[in-house]
Amino acid sequence: MKFGLSVVNDGSYVQIDSEQPRLCALYSGTYQASGSSSVSVSFPSAITTPEPPCVFIQNSSARPNELYTSMTISGGPGAWTGFSITSLNIDFRPTGKWFAAVFASITKADYGLRMWGATGVLIFDSGAAPVIFTRANNSWSYQGQIVLNATAQAYYWANGSVAPLQSDEYFMINPFSRGILQNHTNWLTSAVRFNYSENRLQVFGISALSPWTNIGAPGAVFARLPGT
Predict the structure, then answer these.
(1) Same domain, 145 and 127
(2) Per the count of CB atoms within 10 A, which of 89, 136, 171, 219 is most buried?
């Protein structure tokens, strides 16, 4: 930029840029299903960005075998009101932590620094929590077939990033909120979880028919939200 404000840390990474918004966590909390394999979360107030928020979750290590088959964001452009998570098995009860983030900000701080872009949109508030990206990987290795229960089997893939999940670290579920392609029909139901014993993300294709072994390159994106 020729004019404006840019803040660079001692690692040469741009922390604040008056022309580019950073990814900020607007809301966070926990989710816990009760009596159902689905759970719905409502934001304290609507998120007003045109694009939907990035939803990051940390599936509970106390329920490590549960697979999440979908995540649906409710509302629409300019008024995103929450999201729903559905697990694969009717006996599963999704439990964990979450945060929703956008490339924008909201007024939070009583004191500090606040900036608006050329269009009048708030792009920085020193009270809005920045998302700290920890790792990202779009490499997946095909693992083979697995029997999930008495009535279902699946094929699964493991992500190339192997590392323990920190207590305040999450993965973005948006890339895994729909099905995946297979070579017999248009698509099949997919499911995702962070496997705590292997310290990596796993994606499952729920089918009795073998799918393509290459599912493409969905991004496994991890980020920390300190204090959660």
Answers:
(1) no
(2) 171
pLDDT tens string 211-227:
677 777 889 999 999 99
Nearest C-alpha neighbor of 156 from the set 141, 171, 177, 178: 141
* Chain CA centroid to CA 173, Å: 3
* 77 lies in some domain: yes
Q: How many domains does the chain have?
A: 2
Q: What's the chain's average pLDDT?
A: 86
Beta strands 24-32; 95-102: pairing state = antiparallel
**What is the residue range of 162's domain?**
134-224
From 142, 158, 183, 32, select the one nearest 98 (Cα to Cα).
32
The span from the CA of 141 to the CA of 228, in Å, is 31
Question: Tokens 């900000």 identify what position?
Answer: 105
Model-level pTM?
0.87
In a domain, 72, yes or no: yes
